[in-house]
Amino acid sequence: MHKIYDLIDDADIIVFASPNYMGGIHGKLKCVLDRLYAYIIAEEGGFSVTFDKKKKAALIVTQRTPEENASYTEAFTPLRYILNNIFEGSFDAPCKLLLGGELYGSNDAANNAELMKEAYNMGIELVEEF
After folding, report:
1. Largest alpha-carbon pair distance within the chain?
2. NADPH-dependent FMN reductase-like domain location, by residue (predicted)?
């Protein structure tokens, strides 16, 4: 975990990615996210984090179900707010989400021009916010 902590400490932007498992993230990623509490310091009236600077976070979720037939976007909202609070210090808005649907094979995302454009635009937005 210390290698992951070092990478997080050095990063300006952290993008988490997971397949959608019944409206949740992969168990291994959940374990990593649970360990982010090591950055949190409890204070009177709330908490703060130990980063030297605010960071940006984003979440990418892939699934086989077409986006228009899935109600899972809302299932990830609490996690998006938690990530935004940990990395940006604010519950005002959720972190960015990219949901890729109808992904059946290993190259389906790369071959989906619209999805790749959304990913590119999300990256641009994250960088421009600095």
Report:
1. 50
2. 3-42
Beta strands 13-19 and 96-100 are unpaired
Q: How many domains does the chain have?
A: 1
The answer to whether residue 2 sits within a structural domain is no
- Closest to 60 in 3D by CA, of 91, 100, 21: 100
Residues 6+ away with beta carbon under 8 Å from 112:
100, 103
Given a contact cutoff of 8 angstroms between Cβ atoms, the answer to whether 88 and 117 are in contact is no
Tokens 């990830």 -> residue: 76
Q: Model pTM?
A: 0.89
Domain residues for the domain of 20 are 9-128
Amino acid at 27: G
Query: What letter represents residue 121's amino acid?
Result: N
Q: What is the C-alpha R_g of the chain?
A: 15
95 burial via Cβ count (<10 Å: 0-12, 13-18, 19+)? buried
Q: Could you state, in chain order, the average pLDDT of each consecutive group of 10 residues for the chain (130 residues)?
A: 92 95 92 91 80 90 82 85 88 90 93 96 92
